[in-house]
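As a warm-up, study this chain.
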Amino acid sequence: MNILITGGTSGLGKAVVELLAKDGHQMWFSYLPTEEYSVIAKEMETEYNNVKALPVDFCEPDSVDGFCETIRTMEIDVLVNSTYVGNPQTTYFHKIDPNEMRLSFERNIIPTVKITQTVLEGMKKRRFGKIINIITEAVVGLPPMGYSIYAANKAYLMELSNVWNKEYTRYNITSNCILPAYMQTKFAMVDERIVEQMQQEHPLKRLLTVDEVAQAIKFFVDASQQVNGVKFLMNAGTLLM
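Now compare it with the structure written out below.
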């Protein structure tokens, strides 16, 4: 299948690209065109002949629009919405400038909406498609301190997924969500002492890994179209929906 994942040069996104590329899928992934990520993107293209990197900056509307024009020429079967701009943890809600919340929405939700709308155009014509949204365990129960912006954006995306279930199932298009617990990645790095405490309190005595979440994404890629509207929580059963 033709698979597009947003954010493929680090953490979960990179793990997904590498896992699915080994299955023989044609893979495209977006990356922020900095010097560091450009080098990684090139290395991944060199290692896998079925992988293609596409630069895009979610903070620049013109860049997102250009990216959408590029993917409009592709026949994308699977879209994995993974990219998130910013840090998951900021500060207490009462200390957040409302403009900061607006800016985060514009840099995360709006690009995701544009990309998903573009991909849906082709999926509807071909009457087939799979949308996989990376959410977070933080939308279930009480999120951690300082997660106001991150949890709100992810909750918004999860509700959009419900809308896509309602509107596009008749076109044989599925939309599923994965809600992973904390993973120690560059994106969500915390102090080593906090990680040790989380590990001690975890029922498995270890944190969730990007490879485990990548396997869950692979499940949804391979699954029947009967698997639709799922909110897949990955947290070792520490909090249930």
